[in-house]
Amino acid sequence: MKMIVIADDFTGSNDTGVQLAKKGARTEVMLSASQKPSRRADVLVINTESRAMPADQAASAVYAALSPWCETSPAPLVYKKIDSTFRGNIGAEVTAAMRASQRKLAVIAAAIPAAGRTTLEGKCLVNGVPLLENRICQRSENAHCLFPHCRDSGVAK
């Protein structure tokens, strides 16, 4: 296995799998971590369905899904798929993915310019509007903050 993708929902896992397959990668999408994949794929996409879980449960789900794949040598590249409007348990899940893969660095890139998600001067924007001023993020399910520095729609520089 060359790459493992961990996604927190059905849509994200399938969209990522399709995009990688379009680029020629032999891709398998597992709709749950308990599914048994074939060993023919270059990329394995695992859906943890952890977006709505409490942070500690989401972290456990990511760790459990990823750690068995990181015990091989060489360890696969890990891609933790996140929501471009920062919904879910991004901090807890990225930390769990780093722990499971024994990585010391994670690069977080949520921008998808074609979908109106951009980053400008350290600010996350949705269609040009700062993330927390956008109606997407004012819905009750998005009201919690994932990273303390996101309170002003900023990202670490």
From TrEMBL:
Please name the InterPro entries in this protein's record.
4-carb_acid_sugar_kinase_N, 4-carb_acid_sugar_kinase_N_sf
Four-carbon acid sugar kinase N-terminal domain segment(s): 3-135
Lineage top rank: taxon: Bacteria
Listed Gene3D superfamilies:
Putative sugar-binding, N-terminal domain
Indicate what this protein is called per its UniProt record. Answer: Dihydrodipicolinate synthase
